[in-house]
Amino acid sequence: MGRRAVTAMPSNSALRKPKQLPGSSNAYHPTMSEIVFVVEEAPEGRYTARAVGESIFTEADDLAQLHDRTREAVRCHFDEGKAPKLIRLHYVRDEVIPA
Q: Number of folded domains in the chain?
């Protein structure tokens, strides 16, 4: 039989979660420079955007309006000076094709 490797465990202080920033939900952001939204097109043609890791949701009739509403939603969600500098929109599209 071979020998098994022993893995050192970090100290208890290394296992503690960092403090949560004021004004944020359950996500930890040491220096939040970017927030990601998942964007989907609704069946009726509208667009929806939902933030990853934050409780932010918005919708719009077209992409230009979605950009404006997403910026507004981020500004409203975070305390002054705490909002991320960039908003990344990740577009998701499902397509079903015959086999």
A: 1
Strands laid side by side in the 47-51 sheet: 57-60, 47-51, 34-41, 86-92
Query: Is it the case that residue 82 has pLDDT exceeding 70?
Result: yes
87 within some domain: yes
pTM for this entry: 0.65
The residues that bridge with 40 in the sheet, in sequence order, are: 48, 92
Domain assignment present for 98: no
- What one-character DSSP code corresponds to residue 58? E
The Cα–Cα gap between 74 and 37 comes to 10
CB 70 within 8 A of CB 89: yes
Both tokens assigned to 86: 């960039």
Tokens representing residue 30 in the block: 């040491």
Closest CA to 39 of 27, 49, 28, 52: 49
Q: Is 3 part of a structural domain of the chain?
A: no
